[in-house]
Amino acid sequence: MLTARRTSVVKSASGMAARILGSTSSQHTEQRRTILGISKSLDQRLYRMAKGVMPPISKTEEIALGCGTIGFDRDIFSGNPSLKHLQDTYQPKLSAEEQSFLDNEVNTLCSLINDHDVAMQKDFTKEAWDYMRDHGFFALKIPKEWGGKAFSTHAVSQILVKLGTHSMDANATVAVPNSLGPGELLAGYGTDAQKEYFLPRLADGTLIPCFGLTGPHSGSDATSLIQSDCVLEERNGQLGVVASFKKRYITLAPVAGVVGLGLNLSDPKGLLKGKGEEGFTVALLERDHPGLRMGPRHMPLNSAFMNGTVEGDEVWIPMDNILGGQECCGVGWKMFVECLAEGRGVSLPAGSAGAGRAIVGAVGAYARVRKQFRVPIAEFGGIQEALSTAGSDALITIAGTDLMNAIVDNHEAPMVVSSIMKQNCTERGRRMVEHGMDIAAGSAICRGDNNYLGNTYMGLPIAITVEGANIMTRSFQIIGQGLTRCHPHMLELIQSLQAPKEEEDKAIAIFTKQFYKVVNHGVSNFARSLTRGVGATVSTATRSKTAYTDGNKLVDYHEKQLLRLSANFALTADLCFTLGGRLKFEELLMGRLADAMGAIFLGYATLHHYSRQKGVEGLEAITEHAMLRLEKEAQDALKEASDNFPGPLGPVASTVMKLGCFPLGSLTRPYQAPSDQLTKEVSRMITNPSELRDFFTDGVYMAPEGVAHQVSDLIRALPICVEADKIASTLRREKREPTSEEVDKIAKAEAIRDVLIQVDAFPHLTDAEGQEGYVRPALVGTEERLSSLDRKKFA
């Protein structure tokens, strides 16, 4: 009985336990369902709120987001880039064949070009044109199987740099076929028939190519292709398009034998039938194509390179003339991006790098050759400031160019980095030339064979406007595209907000996942900014002004500062999400962030360059000068962004940014401009024989000995004038008369100085002035007035 009762109690207890557990389990399940429901509701509300403030992505933006590649630009947005990755991955170098071409064919071409004559005649001689054609200057990137050179991007860049030290017109003329011409696109996308016909003719120079994209209303939105429409039609059983187009600013169009034409294809009758699609399409038209009009020229400032219009109305273009055939209809933007990475990121910066090398070489020498108050102007503080700034800008541009070349040679097409390179390097190029003009003064404004700066001064603003004006590139493209394409988590988040209503559940799941990744990313970068900021402040405050002389310490210190600034930038980029779709209209903010990102990228490029060139005496000083300027540029841009953060949540974002980036206020903004001592040291090396000068002049065209060429003559005169000045200083110090040898050296230097400071003067400047019997109108008026006077002369 006892046992039976125990069994009954156990059963009763078991039943009660089961009921309790069952009830608890049911409560837990219901509670979990409730939490999930609330969470899902919140996710849905957050998603719809974000979708409400995010405008639809335009066709241009949608296409751009899917083109090109990402790499080191994403590392910057992550807040944790790696210098070692750059050093291990990218090594720009020339083959023996490429170096030989640079040393021989490029020098020969330069010898055939008189820059002043080209500027005045607005054209090259036929001899120069033939040399460019016969020696493959328009086929540097075309594969060897078709007769081209198949050179690396770095080789093309170095060729353009050397041409840029002598003639910006030659630089532009060679640049276009090797970056924005259809040669590479034909090799990559052309049909067999197109390759077999066009590539050999492009390679041997029979056909000079150009690329027609920009129209009067296209501007920076190249894919809009306004006034470049074509409609698919069928004529006599053959598919083709009827196109009307109006292109301008097309380099080489006045002399081109074939044009790659960007068109906006539509197919209202559905004739494509799934093979190809509507949209940006490239057509290949030869100069004599029926209805095509080419020939009228623009005159870009005072430049002589060929630039003009490409027009046509109701032009019939067979499908065989569409680059890549019917299958490539609608994929022109992808083709264009491949050109754009080299046009923006390689060709245009190469011109600035060439200007930088020539200015350091020639103006640095001029500052020592030219004397005022019996003292070389190189000893004047204002000259030293301008020269050191131009020198470090030249180093930054060369370093960025080398790294960008290696990136492209690594089969990457980074849209954001190429935009940074274009905007930043062309702007630095303009500043370098302005400093050179200031130093050379009167000799730089009087045109003629002796003027080596004037044409470059007038040419660099052109580079600033092409391939997207710098003002647009800086204030819109770099961050507008970078934030969406390069941020580690942003692209999927934005794409989820573009999803149609029927895919909302899936889109919410993606959005929620990416949203929390963005939040976590921001928190991580806030912590990095805080800790690195304090560390950077301490290391900067305790650093000796001569610490840079140790190359390893130089790199270690500046890498840490760039890591700090990268975290600051990444945090600020995350805070931009508080603006939603309004960000694309906040161009003042985007411009400042572009400045910061550009300075950070070029800072890494400068350290990457130093690690490859280490051992050049004086490189530490100019690298230090460049890095200090870049770090201050980034710091100032971020400070201005934090002071002016826009939007309804701007005050909150500004506070968070300041706490993360500058937690101790001005104490955690430690970067200052280079000291006067460093400025003088850099200027001294630029204006005296040194390994650093040799580094810069290595890529400058030097005319043969005995051939008058102002840049070459200045560079060769420098050591002669420096030696003469040392002799004169020694004579004053020792209070003695010179030896006969010393007299000869001083006399030689003075004679050279007298020649090199001369400027050109002309009997007449116009054809009318040169006519026999011509009297200038002002002198005619003088004679008329004198004729009515009784007394016509003083004595």
Largest sheet: 7 strands, mixed
Count of helical stretches? 30
CA radius of gyration is: 33 Å
Mean pLDDT: 90
Distance between the termini: 159 Å
Fraction of helical residues: 55-70%
Q: Give the strand content.
A: 5-15%
Structural class: alpha+beta
Estimate the global geometry from the Cα principal axes: globular
Poorly predicted residue ranges: 1-37
How many β-strands, per DSSP? Answer: 9
Can you give keywords for this protein?
single chain; 795 residues; alpha+beta; seven-stranded mixed sheet; two-stranded antiparallel sheet; 30 helices; 9 strands; 8% strand; globular
Molecular structure report:
The strands form two sheets. Strands 1, 2, 3, 4, 5, 6 and 7 form a seven-stranded mixed beta sheet that branches. Helix 13 (332-369) crosses helix 26 (691-697) and helix 22 packs antiparallel against helix 23 (619-643). Helix content is 60%, strand content 8%. Strand 8 and strand 9 (375-376) form a beta hairpin. The chain is globular and about 95 Å long. By secondary structure, the protein is an alpha+beta fold.
